[in-house]
Amino acid sequence: MDALYVFITTSLPKAGAQVSGLPLTLNLLLTAYVILRQPNRTLLMIQRFRGLTVAYGTLFIFGVLSILMALAQGMEAYTLSQMIIVVGSPLVGVAATRMSSRQFSRIIICSMFIVNLYGIIQFAIGIENCAVAGITYTLGQDFTDKAIGFHADGTVEKIPSTYQSGSSLGIFNVLGVSFLLSNYQDSSIWKYMRYVALGLGLVGVMLSGSRSIQIPFILLLIIFLIQFVKQLPPRKRSMTLGVGGIALAIGAVCLCAQQTIVDRFFDRLVNQTLADKTASGRTEQWSQSFEVISQMNGWQLLRQIMFGQNPHTDVVGEGLPKFFFMFGIVSTMAFYGGLLYIIRCCWQCRRSRTVALGILCVFCAFCVDRSFNYPPNIMNVSLFAAAVLKNHSFTNSSEQRLRNTAIKSLIND
Questions:
Q1: Are 90 and 383 in contact (CB under 8 A)?
Q2: Is 0.90 surpassed by the pTM of this model?
Q3: pLDDT digit string (tens) for the chain, length 413 residues
Q4: DSSP labels for 349-380?
Q5: What is the distance between the alpha carbons of residues 367 and 309, in angstroms, rounded to a whole number?
Q6: Nearest in space to 164 (alpha carbons), one of 16, 268, 282
Q7: In which domain, by residue range, is 341 found?
């Protein structure tokens, strides 16, 4: 069941139907099962790292209080579901801890194929022409209502693939690429599939059209490559660099042949970014919202700071400010602090440093847009982090036990 959950979450996260205005997807149903299947193991996963225990415990306590207060004051069901997703999603990493590393990595490779090949088909023939209701998107929802930049001619700025969101597609691909850079396969077929999946992931990042994830990924790309080379055995570095250079050259030729992808990527990332000084209206939203907060009385201000906004208060925004508006300062510090702690833990293990960089890119995206509100973005972060840290945490524990045993022996002697 864990394998099915990881596959659905990473490849078909929107498969399901909308019921009473709320999306009821297979991903969400399986999320509840995965978390509640072994509650003790779920809690143990969080308790392995002291900093994560503190961060998530704080987020859970203050997040639940924010949810209860918002519910009592008439919060809309859709917004309420988003808050529950934010608080509960970090726990799904337990699914990755119950799977073998080989099984997890092969599922990710398959998901990279499915998601990005479907995204390329969407780009080639149009989103609505290849949509399958209830599988590639939630039955009862409409693509035109999604923030993917529909134009009058039917084209879009963001290719959503099976994620119904270009931002979510970009986040998955950055995490997938960062994971596969540090992952090795023991089968020749899966080795080649891993290389192709990496290439498809890079194309998927370009097609996603999400500048919030593209910009940090581009800025950190050199560091990604350096850390990838460093983790290789010395005898394999020259061969890998040679093969990688050839693969990049072939990829560049293919992209140049399909010049439209490159043109759209450059126009979206450079031209539109430089032309829009308000960051898609974000700076105006933030200034207006903080102006509303400055006019609150003592109790209203205390409620906003500690537990987030009253559901009837006109406070909007994106990214980190939006998280603060929803949950308050304590939950905001716990959420973003927890992400930084996970990045630090991944960086301490040499083989997972590329994953640390991938999560850092997602951290930047969460700071400037609302992608944390929508499944499976936080879920994917939790799954990839748990997959690379599960052995690292046990190794640390074993080393500590050996140290303690050695110290006791010296004392006894």
A1: no
A2: no
A3: 899 999 999 999 999 998 877 888 999 999 999 999 888 888 888 888 888 999 999 999 999 999 999 999 888 888 899 999 999 999 999 999 999 999 999 999 999 999 999 999 998 888 888 988 888 888 888 777 777 766 655 667 888 999 989 999 999 999 999 999 988 888 889 988 998 999 899 999 988 888 899 999 999 988 888 888 887 776 666 655 565 565 566 556 555 555 566 666 666 666 676 667 666 667 777 778 888 888 888 888 898 899 998 888 878 878 898 999 999 999 999 999 999 999 999 999 888 899 999 999 999 999 999 999 999 999 999 999 999 998 764 444 444 444 444 444 444 44
A4: SGGGHHHHHHHHHHHHHHHHSSGGGSTTHHHH
A5: 18
A6: 16
A7: 1-411
Dist CA 203 CA 199 (whole Å) = 6
CA-based nearest residue to 65, from 355, 326, 368, 283:
326
DSSP β-ladder status, 16-19 and 22-25: antiparallel
| CA 278 to the chain's CA centroid | 25
Contacts of 378 (CB under 8 A, 6+ apart): 85, 86, 89, 90, 372
Q: Give the H/E segment covering residue 67.
A: helix 50-72
DSSP single-letter state for residue 18: E
If one counts the domains in the chain, the total is: 1
